[in-house]
Amino acid sequence: MTASPTPSPDAPAGAAPRPQVEFFWRPGCPFCMLLERSLDSEGVTLTKRNIWEEPEAAAIVRSVADGNETVPTVRIGEVAMVNPSARQVMAVLAAD
């Protein structure tokens, strides 16, 4: 699934749009909830993908997590991060 970047609602006029941030999660995961809350406070819009409901999402996570379904996993363009901190996600967004 490829989507073009969407502008952040609080981005200054003429600013480059933020790339899509895919957030792979599963219900009941406290690490997922913590990362989601941290990214939300930074104004990051997430495309959430529940690995228990989407077999394709689970396959993507396994492909970048050594065959495991480790969540949270975040994918920004070609960059995939398994169990990243909010700081790591924000660094990738800043580099884009």
Question: Which characteristics define this entry?
Answer:
33% helix; single chain; 96 residues; disordered N terminus; alpha+beta
Instruction: Classify the helix fraction into a percent range.
Output: 25-40%
- The total beta strand count reads 4
Number of domains: 1
Radius of gyration: 13 Å
Instruction: Encode the helix/strand succession as letters.
Output: EHEHEEH
CATH fourth-tier homologous superfamily:
Glutaredoxin
Tell me what portion of residues adopts beta-strand conformation.
Answer: 15-25%
Poorly predicted ranges (pLDDT <50, ≥5 residues)? 1-11
CATH architecture: 3-Layer(aba) Sandwich
CATH fold name:
Glutaredoxin
Backbone structural class: alpha+beta
What does this structure look like?
The structure is a single chain. This protein is an alpha+beta fold and 96 residues long. It is 33% helix and 19% strand. It contains three helices and four strands; from the N terminus they run βαβαββα. A four-stranded mixed beta sheet has the order 2-1-3-4, sandwiched between helices. It is globular, with a radius of gyration of 13 Å. The N terminus is likely disordered.
